[in-house]
């Protein structure tokens, strides 16, 4: 496993002109310009929470969530990034994308900001593919204090695939956003029935946005991330996680079914599991208030 400890980074990493102010910044790191933004704590800073999003989702999804964290846990600073092949992050390296590669990016950012905030440890929250990145980093970095694994899987033999996936070995990337009908059919699988019934206008708006953003460049990036996440196998690493861990899943998740959360909970020491009833894969959208409250309560 690639070295993910803070001690593995060269001193030049800490000489980059990054700051604690608002706005997008870029970490120049190992063949990529990693886009991120930092949000200072409103009270004297005691914690850093690093937010890692899922497949083809960027850091902007966390905007409303971070405002809630700011109110509920004012001593917590937050940092959110765009993974490689997503958002404003650009990649110059020709090396294959892996979950471990993305975990090292997150570790580098955490190392930089822990140093300037004078913190020894940090907390880490990953959603879906971001959860794969987060558990990988927590297994290989002793500085992770609190770990949040949301709507995610250990991969490999610990992965329960959706019922529709008959043969995982034959999975191939498919563009689901060619038109509005195909987009709606695909996106319905991401939400619980309650949300789809009560939030039809929001669902339609999200689907139209996805169709509008469907470009050749986006599809190439999506394919790259798809290959990295669909082949992920972290089963041998999760026993190494020492961080206090909260696992969160919706009981109607059709993308990464609830069985995956139970597997993580059963195999990670110092872990607890929260299951949201009548909720699908996108907890950040379906249960924003409860989710923020649960995260902040766990951070105490």
Topology at a glance:
Layout: E1 25-29, E2 32-39, E3 47-52, H1 63-72, E4 76-81, E5 90-91, H2 99-117, E6 122-127, H3 129-140, E7 144-150, H4 180-187, H5 193-198, H6 200-212, H7 216-230, E8 244-250, H8 258-267, E9 271-276, H9 283-286, H10 288-299
Parallel strand pairs: 3-4, 3-6, 6-7, 7-8, 8-9
Antiparallel strand pairs: 1-2, 2-4, 2-5
Pfam family, one: Abhydrolase_1
GO biological process, one term: acylglycerol catabolic process
Protein name: AB hydrolase-1 domain-containing protein
Oligomer: single chain
Mean pLDDT, to the nearest integer, reads: 96
Largest sheet data: 9 strands, mixed
CATH topology: Rossmann fold
E-strand count: 9
CA radius of gyration is: 18 Å
Distance between the termini: 31 Å
| Spans of at least 5 consecutive residues with low confidence | none
Helix run count:
10
Q: What's the CATH H-level superfamily name?
A: Alpha/Beta hydrolase fold, catalytic domain
Strand content: 15-25%
Content-based structural category: alpha/beta
- In total, how many domains does the architecture comprise? 1
Order of secondary-structure elements: EEEHEEHEHEHHHHEHEHH
Question: What's the CATH class, please?
Answer: Alpha Beta
- Judging from the principal axes of the Cα atoms, what is the shape? globular
Q: Mind telling me which CATH architecture this is?
A: 3-Layer(aba) Sandwich
Give the % helix. Answer: 25-40%
């Amino acid at each position: 496993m690639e070295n993910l400890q803070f001690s593995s980074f060269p001193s030049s990493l800490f000489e980059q002109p990054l700051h604690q102010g608002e706005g997008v910044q870029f970490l120049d790191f190992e063949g990529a310009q990693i886009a991120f933004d930092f949000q200072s704590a409103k009270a004297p800073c005691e914690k850093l929470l690093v937010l890692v999003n899922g497949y083809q989702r960027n850091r902007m999804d966390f905007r409303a969530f971070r405002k809630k964290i700011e109110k509920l846990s004012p001593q917590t600073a937050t940092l959110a990034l765009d993974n490689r092949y997503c958002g404003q992050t650009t990649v110059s390296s020709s090396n294959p994308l892996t979950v471990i590669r993305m975990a090292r990016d997150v570790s580098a950012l955490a190392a930089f900001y822990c140093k300037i905030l004078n913190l020894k440890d940090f907390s880490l929250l990953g959603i879906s593919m971001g959860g794969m990145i987060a558990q990988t980093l927590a297994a290989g970095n002793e500085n992770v204090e609190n770990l949040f694994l949301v709507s995610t899987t250990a991969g490999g033999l610990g992965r329960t695939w959706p019922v529709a996936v008959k043969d995982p070995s034959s999975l191939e990337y498919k563009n689901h956003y060619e038109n509005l009908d195909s987009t709606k059919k695909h996106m319905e699988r991401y939400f619980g029935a309650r949300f789809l019934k009560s939030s039809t206008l929001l669902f339609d708006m999200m689907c139209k946005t996805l169709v509008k953003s469907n470009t050749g460049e986006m599809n190439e990036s999506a394919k790259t991330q798809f290959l990295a996440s669909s082949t992920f196998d972290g089963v041998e690493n999760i026993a190494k996680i020492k961080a206090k861990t909260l696992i969160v899943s919706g009981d109607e998740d059709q993308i990464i079914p609830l069985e995956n959360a139970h597997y993580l909970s059963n195999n990670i020491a110092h872990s607890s599991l929260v299951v949201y009833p009548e909720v699908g894969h996108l907890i950040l959208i379906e249960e924003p208030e409860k989710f923020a409250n649960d995260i902040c309560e766990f951070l105490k």
